[in-house]
Design the sequence.
C-alpha cells in the first residue's frame, strides 16, 4: 500500500486513516471505526454521505446516459439552470466540474463584459488578502497567496490584491480600469472570516458608482452553509453580477456553476467558453436533488437553528479555555475556533478521538460539517474538541 501511495504526485499529505464507506455525518474505516465528519470533504458533502435521494438519482441516470458533451442539449441541465435563476439574482448559468472552473468562467466573463462595451483596457480585478479562489493559474493569481504562486512564473497582470477589510485602500484602488471586485462573502481558507453585511452592501454600491462588476466566490460558503441559500442573501441589497459556486451544490459529485445577470452572461457567445464534461447528465441528476433539498425554507431554517447550537457550544469552549482560544469566527455551519497557536496539534488530537476537522489561516480550527447534523452530533463534537484542547500544550 505504501508503495502504491508513492506513485501519486506528492502534493497531499493525508493521515493514515482510509475510509471505506460513509453514512450521514459519519465515515467508517476498513476496520469499522466510526468517525464524526465535521469537515465534509471541505464543505462539499452538504447532505452527508450516501444520501438516499442522491444515490437513487445517480443510479437512475447512470442506467440511461452518462455523457454527450455540450454539442447536444441536456434537458436536465436546462431545468436546473431555470431553478437556479428563479431562486437567485441570476439570469444565466454555465455549468462546470469544479469551483476553480467556475472562478475561471467568472473572471473571463467580467473581462469580456467590458471588452464588449468597448472598454478594452478595463480588465483589472480587485481581490483581498486571505482569499482562496482555486488552484488553476488564473485562480492562484486572483488569490495572490505567495505560497501558491511560488514556482509558477511571474504573476499574471490584471489583479490588484488589497488587505482584507481595508476600506480606504479599496476606495483608492478602484479606477476606470477596474473590471470587477472579487470577494468571498465568508472566507474559507483565509481563516473563516465573514464579511459584515454592511460591507457587502457597500461593495455593491461602490461597484455601481464606478461601473465595475461585483463577483462573489460562494464555492465554499454558498449552498445553505450559512443558513441562507447563499451567504450574500443575508444582505438583500448586495446581489452580485457574477457568482461562482461548487462544493455543496453537488453534494459530493463534481459539479460547479458560474451564475450571471443577463447583461454579463449574454456577452459569452459561442466560442467564448466551454467545458467537455460541465453539465453532464450525471451531474445534473445529482445536482437537481441537492438543489431541491437545500433550496427549501424549512431545511435552511434548521441549518440556522443547529448552527446556533454549535456556536453556543464553541463559545463555551472559548470560555473554558481562555488561555488557548481567542474567539469564534465564521458564519452558520462554516465556523472556526481561533486559537492562540497553530491548530494542527488540535486537529490531530480531534482525529485521534475520531472527529474530523479542518484548519484555516494561521490559527483557526475549521468546522464545516454536513448541513444535516443533529444537536447530538454537535454535542459529541464539542466534547471531543474540549478534550483535545485539554490535552494540548502550547509551545512557549
Sequence:
Amino acid at each position: 500500500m505504501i508503495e502504491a501511495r508513492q506513485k501519486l504526485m506528492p502534493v497531499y499529505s493525508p493521515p493514515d486513516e482510509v475510509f471505506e464507506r460513509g453514512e450521514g455525518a459519519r465515515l467508517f474505516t476498513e476496520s469499522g471505526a466510526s468517525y464524526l465528519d465535521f469537515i465534509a470533504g471541505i464543505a462539499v458533502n452538504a447532505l452527508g454521505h450516501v444520501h438516499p435521494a442522491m444515490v437513487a438519482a445517480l443510479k437512475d441516470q447512470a442506467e440511461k446516459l452518462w455523457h454527450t458533451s455540450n454539442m447536444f442539449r441536456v434537458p436536465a441541465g436546462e431545468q436546473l439552470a431555470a431553478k437556479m435563476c428563479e431562486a437567485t439574482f441570476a439570469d444565466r448559468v454555465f455549468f462546470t466540474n469544479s469551483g476553480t472552473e467556475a472562478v475561471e468562467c467568472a473572471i473571463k466573463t467580467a473581462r469580456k463584459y467590458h471588452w464588449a462595451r468597448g472598454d478594452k483596457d478595463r480588465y483589472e480585478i480587485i481581490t483581498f488578502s486571505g482569499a482562496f479562489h482555486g488552484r488553476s493559474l488564473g485562480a492562484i493569481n486572483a488569490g495572490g497567496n505567495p505560497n501558491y504562486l511560488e514556482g509558477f512564473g511571474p504573476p499574471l497582470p490584471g489583479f490588484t490584491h488589497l488587505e482584507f477589510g481595508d476600506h480606504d485602500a479599496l476606495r483608492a484602488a478602484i479606477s476606470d480600469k477596474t473590471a470587477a471586485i472579487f470577494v468571498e462573502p465568508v472566507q474559507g481558507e483565509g481563516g473563516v472570516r465573514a464579511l459584515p453585511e454592511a460591507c457587502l452592501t457597500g461593495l455593491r454600491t461602490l461597484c455601481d458608482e464606478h461601473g465595475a462588476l461585483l463577483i462573489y466566490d460562494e464555492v465554499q460558503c454558498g449552498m445553505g452553509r450559512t443558513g441562507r441559500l447563499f451567504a450574500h442573501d443575508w444582505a438583500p441589497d448586495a446581489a452580485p453580477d457574477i457568482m461562482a459556486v461548487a462544493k455543496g451544490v453537488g453534494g459530493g459529485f463534481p459539479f460547479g456553476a458560474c451564475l450571471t445577470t443577463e447583461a454579463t452572461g449574454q456577452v459569452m457567445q459561442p466560442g467564448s467558453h466551454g467545458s467537455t464534461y460541465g453539465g453532464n447528465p450525471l451531474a445534473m441528476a445529482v445536482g437537481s436533488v441537492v438543489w431541491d433539498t437545500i433550496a427549501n425554507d424549512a431545511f435552511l431554517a434548521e441549518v440556522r437553528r443547529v448552527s446556533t447550537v454549535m456556536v453556543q457550544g464553541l463559545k463555551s469552549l472559548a470560555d473554558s479555555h481562555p488561555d488557548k482560544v481567542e474567539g469564534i469566527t465564521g458564519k452558520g455551519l462554516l465556523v472556526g475556533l481561533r486559537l492562540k497557536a497553530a491548530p494542527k496539534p488540535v486537529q490531530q488530537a480531534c482525529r485521534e478521538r475520531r472527529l474530523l476537522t479542518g484548519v484555516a489561516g494561521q490559527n483557526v480550527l475549521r468546522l464545516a460539517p454536513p448541513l444535516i447534523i443533529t444537536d447530538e452530533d454537535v454535542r459529541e463534537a464539542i466534547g471531543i474538541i474540549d478534550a483535545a484542547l485539554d490535552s494540548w500544550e502550547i509551545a512557549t
Remarks:
- Residues 297-320 form the longest helix (24 residues).
